[in-house]
Design goal:
CATH architecture: Up-down Bundle
CATH class: Mainly Alpha
Strand order of the largest sheet: 1-2
Order of helices and strands: HHHHHEHHHEHH
CATH superfamily: CDP-alcohol phosphotransferase transmembrane (TM) domain
Radius of gyration: 31 Å
Strand content: under 5%
Shape: globular
Largest sheet: 2 strands, antiparallel
Structural class: mainly alpha
Oligomer: single chain
Helix content: 55-70%
CATH topology: Four Helix Bundle (Hemerythrin (Met), subunit A)
Number of strands: 2
């Protein structure tokens, strides 16, 4: 085909800036892969569960509100793994997950506790709920800052700094689990719930090393596939059949495991210190050996020792 059908682009044409702008818009609004949308949809579903928990707490239907919080915690543990599995992680998804966690595991549990029993203490109860919500927000903000720290050792990924927000939300609701188990709601329950809520809030913003468990489940041996399936099905069956017993025992076991995470973290630090000391000692011995085997330099003789110096004359 003759070349005159395709005239060359003239850089001085008036419509060239418009064409460049259209190309920029096409690049900005290029199609988004579905693998990136799936984790964000799961996060939005968890956010809907947290907002629904607030609604049922206002209506006094605490059983459904607690079920919604547990469902949001399950979805929160799933969306990150699915994002890494599909390679659909994004900065937008990380920010959306943090906002959803603040609502699901900060605002919703605080309001549930207030409508359940903290309102009996009037302003003190509301202050306890506020402290828990604020600590949850601070904990999530610190997590977002520390996740990109290049100075963290590789093993530090096995630990959280402070109790994570989902675990804090499930743990702080223990007084309500115990009431649903049939324990009488005495006058001391509300003050105990206040102290317990503030204690969990401070554990969230503390520097206590808490085992994360993120590395668990990344690889399953072939002979353990069927037992893992059976264990997961059994856990969900027990949770659906005996929810308050399972949540109460799980919360107490989780609180009892916190010292073990601290001990494991200290063990990692001790190993790093020993490895650093051994490396420095090896470097010092190598430098001493190199100095001992180096040839004598007549222009720069080694300094004389004290026992080789002549005595000063009187």
């Amino acid at each position: 085909m003759p070349s005159h059908f395709f005239p060359p682009l003239d850089p001085h044409r008036r419509d060239r800036p418009d064409r460049l702008e259209r190309l920029r818009l096409r690049r900005r609004f290029r199609p988004i892969p579905v693998r990136t949308l799936v984790p964000n949809l799961i996060t939005l579903l968890a956010l809907c569960a947290g907002l629904t928990a607030i609604r049922f707490a206002i209506e006094g239907r605490l059983e459904i509100a607690l079920a919604a919080i547990v469902f949001a915690a399950v979805l929160d543990g799933v969306d990150g793994r699915i994002a890494r599995l599909l390679r659909g992680t994004s900065r937008f998804g990380a920010e959306l997950d943090s906002l959803a966690d603040f609502v699901n595991f900060g605002v919703a549990p605080g309001l549930i506790l207030y409508f359940w029993g903290l309102h009996e203490l009037k302003s003190l109860g509301w202050i306890a709920a506020l402290v828990f919500v604020i600590c949850a927000g601070l904990r999530l903000a610190r997590f977002n800052v520390m996740i990109d720290d290049p100075n963290r050792p590789p093993w530090a990924g096995n630990f959280f700094t402070g109790m994570p927000a989902p675990a804090g939300a499930i743990t702080v609701l223990l007084p309500i689990y115990l009431e649903f188990l049939g324990l009488p709601k005495l006058a001391i329950v509300a003050p105990f719930a206040l102290v317990y809520t503030v204690a969990i809030a401070f554990l969230m913003v503390s520097k206590l090393p808490v085992y994360s468990g993120k590395r668990i489940g990344t690889r399953v041996p072939p002979d353990m596939v069927l037992p893992v399936f059976v264990l997961v099905v059994l856990s969900f069956a027990l949770l659906l059949s005996y929810p308050w017993e399972v949540l109460s025992l799980g919360t107490i076991a989780y609180l009892a495991s916190l010292p073990f995470g601290w001990l494991s973290y200290r063990d990692y630090e001790r190993r790093d210190a020993e490895a650093a000391a051994a490396a420095s000692a090896a470097a010092a011995s190598a430098a001493a050996a190199a100095a001992a085997t180096a040839p004598d330099d007549p222009l720069h003789p080694p300094p004389a020792r004290d026992d080789e110096r002549p005595a000063r004359l009187n």
